[in-house]
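Entry 14: structure prediction run for Endonuclease III. Input pasted below.
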Amino acid sequence: MLNRTQIGEILHRIAEMFPDAHCELIHANPFELTIAVALSAQCTDQKVNQVTRSLFQKYRTPEDYVSVPLEELEQDIRSIGLFRSKAKNIQALSRMLLEQYDGQVPREHEQLVQLPGVGRKTANVVVSNAFGEPAIAVDTHVERVSKRLGLANWKDSVLEVEKKLMKKVPREEWTQTHHRLIFFGRYHCKAQNPACPACPVLEFCREGKKRMKKLETV
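Run finished. Output tokens:
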């Protein structure tokens, strides 16, 4: 198990690798961010940005999304996986914003997770990036990196990974750490062929050490 000093050193080295890590979903306001994150489930940010480039020109408010037939919205996001369920959720989400929140995205996490298609991860992204509230959103990259490094256990649920990171990282660093772990997982510690030989945190990484031993025996 990593101690606090080792964890601090890991995060420091990852921060040096990706000092400008940020949310890569293009958005202009909390509502667009909420839509973009909802679309990003099981889809890359790059693909979402390709779709929202035109989507956010056509639809600017919750009223815009509920005023078109569901089939039309489905066609607008057809190139994204699970487009039918996502279109349905977006319309339901927009309707709920109009009926309960005067068309505005709520700032509270408890209210955000009540919106259709908005889970804990999406809510964490919105509160941290749109409203400046420290949060750690655990996506596939954060989960993979945390488990490989030993910041969490292999069998931990997404929620358990989030809670462990919240305990091990100072609250004021939650949001930036979330972004850096995503960048580290997306561009360096990839699911397939992670860059272990050139990794600055290899000495702390149980998965990396195991992979390097296999390479040495080949």
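Notes: The chain has two domains: 4-21+137-217, 30-131. Will compare against the previous run tomorrow.
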